[in-house]
Write a structure and sequence with these properties.
It contains three helices and eight strands, in the order ααββββαββββ. It has 137 residues and is an alpha+beta fold. It has one domain. The radius of gyration is 15 Å and the shape is globular. The chain starts with a helix and ends with a strand.
């Protein structure tokens, strides 16, 4: 049980770092990475949306949900991860350690020639971390 808890904790610490790697990747590659690197997340193919194309994954405990947005060429344009509110402090600390803070609730980093924005939005029961390409140099 301790081993499982430790493994899940390590997985949760790596999630925002991995989200950045999806930007620009095709859907097939994303599905492969998710299956390999995030076995605790299950794909949800039941949701359909006629406006946005996205892949959806969720944890068994429903305390984490990923939406990976795709463009018309099936390439990732952004990642939004929703967490339960009890993970807020640890995720903010992690974001502060990994990325440059721009202002309250927003960080940025460079990925190749792109500037990526990371935004946190907090609600009563959950919060979201969104990675999106802001500028292409």
């Amino acid at each position: 049980m301790k081993r499982l808890l430790l493994s899940l904790s390590l997985l949760l610490l790596l999630i925002p770092l991995k989200a950045q790697e999806f930007l620009g990747l095709p859907e097939k590659s994303i599905r492969t990475v998710m299956a390999k690197d995030f076995p605790g997340l299950t794909p949800d193919n039941m949701v359909r949306n006629d406006v946005y194309r996205y892949l959806k994954y969720h944890s068994a405990e429903d305390n984490e949900t990923w939406l990976i947005f795709l463009d018309d060429r099936d390439r990732c344009t952004g990642v939004r991860i929703t967490y339960s509110s009890n993970q807020y402090d640890s995720k903010i600390k992690e974001l502060n350690e990994k990325y440059d803070p721009d202002r309250d609730g927003i960080w940025s980093y460079r990925m190749g020639r792109d500037i990526i924005s990371v935004k946190v939005q907090r609600d009563a029961w959950f919060f979201t971390v969104t990675h999106v390409r802001m500028q292409h140099m």
